[in-house]
Amino acid sequence: MNNIWILAQADTASEPTAITAEPVNKQTEPVTVVPGSQPPPAPAPPRKGFEYGNLIFLALMFVVMYLLLFRGPRKKQQEHLRMVKSLQKNDKVQTIGGIIGIVMDVKDDEITLKVDENNNTKIKVVPSAIGRNLLKETT
């Protein structure tokens, strides 16, 4: 049963009215149909399925996230590692704590810095504590 028929009783003084039908299904809006006329065209069904625009957008988002979160810090870490490996005796460096000293000895796990000329004060720091090479930046 697709339609509900509504019968209306007319006044005796006026003409009888036409019988109308309203569709019961919930996908379309109720429509009154007058006998002898054509029903209005049905609305187009909604598009179903996956659109490729969404897939391209997601792929682009993953590429941007990779570049921002992984590649930038890794590149900076590699530059720092190259700078530390290129340190030589008598290079003037600054630690990440702000101490400025002259490199006296470079080993794999420690770097000896001379921080005071008068007292011949030396400190040992790990290579990751070296912030920048002041001689290489000015040249």
- Reading off the top of the CATH hierarchy, the class of the domain at 88-138 is best stated as Mainly Beta
Strand content: 15-25%
Radius of gyration: 41 Å
Task: Calculate the mean pLDDT score and round it.
Answer: 81
Rough shape?
rod-shaped
What is the CATH third-level topology name of the domain at 88-138?
Answer: SH3 type barrels
Main sheet: which strands, in order across?
Answer: 6-5-4-3-7
Number of strands: 7
Give the N-to-C terminal Cα separation.
90 Å
Largest sheet: 5 strands, antiparallel
Specify the structural class. Answer: alpha+beta
SSE topology string: EEHEEEEEH
Supply the CATH architecture of the domain at 88-138: Roll
Count the helices. How many?
2
Q: pLDDT below 50 for ≥5 consecutive residues: which ranges?
A: none
Helix content: 25-40%
What does it look like?
The protein is 28% helix and 24% strand. It has 139 residues and is an alpha+beta fold. Among the domains are: 1-45, no CATH class; 88-138, SH3 type barrels, CATH 2.30.30. The strands form 2 sheets. A 5-stranded antiparallel beta sheet has the order 6-5-4-3-7. The radius of gyration is 41 Å and the shape is rod-shaped. The chain starts with a strand and ends with a helix.
Key descriptive features of the protein:
139 residues, alpha+beta, SH3 type barrels, five-stranded antiparallel sheet, 2 helices, 28% helix
Give the SSE layout.
Layout: E1 3-6, E2 20-23, H1 52-85, E3 92-95, E4 100-106, E5 111-116, E6 121-125, E7 130-133, H2 134-138
Antiparallel strand pairs: 1-2, 3-4, 3-7, 4-5, 5-6
